[in-house]
Amino acid sequence: MEILFVTTELAPFVKVGGLADVSAALPKTLKALGHRVTIVMPRYPAFEQAGLLLARRLTPITVEMGGHTWEVTAFDGRLASQVDLVLLDAPGIFDREGVYGERGEDYSDNVIRFAVLSRAVAELVKQRAAGGAAIDAVHVNDWPTALVAKYMRDLGVDAPSVLTIHNVAHQGVFPKEMVPAIGLSWDDFNVSGIEFYGSVNFLKQGILSADLVTTVSPSYAKEIQSEEGGCRLDGVLRSKPRIVGIVNGVDYGVWNPATDSNLVARYDGEDATNKARCKGALQKELGLPLEANAPLLLHVGRIVPQKGADLVIDALPRLLRGSDAQIVFAGDGDAALVAKLEQAVEKAPGRAAFVRAASEAMVHKLFAAADIALVPSRFEPCGLVQLYAQRYGAPPVAHATGGLIDTIVDCDAKLETGTGFLFEAPTADALYATVQRAIAAFESDRWPALRRRVMRLDRGWERAGRQYEHAYRSLSASR
């Protein structure tokens, strides 16, 4: 099959969140399954800075919207995975350091930036179709690329479209006055179109226009169709014939403690002896006491309420007072919450550390050192932290929501079954109680067997790749 994968992030070049990892791993998996895959995305400065070789196309893509014209230049490249890459460049639109914004603020012209991107992709598909190149699936991701299917229809392009929702809370909502500026007519501004409580909603239009909507876990697919979890789009989502939930995978070419060059020593599920060396090296690097028997807890991710960072901060004094545990935080986010975290860490010298700007290499070292990973997200579409943690032998403590339910089996009292520790209510009390349960397990003689069990889990991308493959084929068969 011929697949266009449209995204705004791509690891290791441009990463804001988990979308970057998915955008690198899923196309690579589909390529390995025998399909021709092309990633289409903005041309950011990071690509040239990384030394990626690009060839400029002579014929630009003309985008006309709201009385303005953009000449979008396409650049062809190829990733190490042999996946083809098309980067779209519009002067003043994409050539910025940030993806969605800088210094915690969204770019004020994001409505135009991502409308231009989506329209340019639609024009690119039209060009390819005119040249006789059939496309079996145009796969877009989240609100920034959600308008592609709508624009393709407006241009008379008949190509199957898939929209994957990685987080329904991010919708791309803008003032209604932007309707003409993004190339739509006022006839599109209605309850059956892009209108959303008096505003424009990119994700809503994407859901309505896409031939198939997927999301990143079966449980999250159910949650977003409920009033509690749909962020006011639950009715629109329920109007679709089906929402397919496909759990993300782990790229074992990148995330594998047996081959990870970032680690001071490598290990695997059969022999995890060197995990202790990784733990000691991190403790030394972060100025924590070299205590091999002290459970090392890890919270890695954005320091925001959605990720439950505030729950960990609130539980921190009790966690440290009731055990000899150490804890490491890594990530950035909400300024007020980050300041609160910094204060909490300062009050726990030798017991807590905070790595605010963690490099990719540091994140690998953190997972290798950790004994227990904390994933207390209030909601979690899929989550990658728990998957990486399991692979590196750090059973997760997690809130039972979304993809965390689909990827973690709560351990029984004897630790004979299970792959982590789940709690039902997103509260500091519930988190504290469950961490205590995990620490008790860590101190038991059954811990090595649990660690071995989670490291042996098959979380690779092939299963997810075949599910997407099936989804694409179902679209082609139904046309």
- The CATH homologous superfamily name of the largest domain equals Glycogen Phosphorylase B
**Overall mean confidence score, pLDDT:** 96
Note poorly predicted spans.
none
Helix content: 25-40%
| Strand segment tally | 21
What structural category arises from helix and sheet content? alpha/beta
What is the total domain count? 2
| Shape type | globular
Q: Total helix count?
A: 16
Key descriptive features of the protein:
10-stranded mixed sheet; 479 residues; 6-stranded parallel sheet; 21 strands; Rossmann fold; 2 domains; 16 helices
Tell me about this structure:
- It is a single chain.
- The protein has 479 residues and is α/β, with parallel strands linked by helices.
- The protein folds into 2 domains: 2-249 and 462-477, Glycogen Phosphorylase B (Rossmann fold); 275-455, Glycogen Phosphorylase B (Rossmann fold, 3-Layer(aba) Sandwich).
- 35% of the residues lie in helices and 19% in strands.
- It contains 16 helices and 21 strands.
- Strands 1, 2, 3, 4, 5, 6, 9, 10, 14 and 15 form a 10-stranded mixed sheet that branches. Strands 18-17-16-19-20-21 form a 6-stranded parallel sheet, sandwiched between helices.
- α3 (110-130) packs across α4, α9 packs parallel to α10 and α9 packs across α14 (428-442).
- The two termini are 15 Å apart.
